[in-house]
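Example record

One chain of 136 residues, shown exactly as stored in the release files.
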Amino acid sequence: MFLKNKQIGRLFWLLPLIGIILIWGCINSEKNPDTFDLPSNFADSLSRFESVLIILKDTSGHPLDTLFKGNVKSASQLKNLSAPHYPGGKMIVTIIGYQDGKITYQVDRIFNGGTGETEKIIPPQTPRYENKIERR
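Predicted structure tokens for this chain:
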């Protein structure tokens, strides 16, 4: 019986230590609120462009931060992107791909930063040109 009480005593000393380790792990694993992550699978499709520009906008379409500008070579480049104005939650992510200095790809995605998923893809809008024929 003495051994059992001694083992129980050791267990009670271990419990606070385990609790401290768990709390420390949770605190240090939280994502920095001033950063933004894009899904890893974006890197494969964006690596084909000479240059990529990724802009973070609020849900009204107002630009908040330039998340990335350059050539995408790996998925790690799309993690922990500096976004000091990112409030969290749903945002619009505009992705522009360039080849030979010209825009060859552009898309807006409604992105949920909490779930890390694209909720909707907004097709690009181009200016509408009307042919005006003068009547004589």
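Notes: Confidence is low (pLDDT under 50) at residues 24-31.
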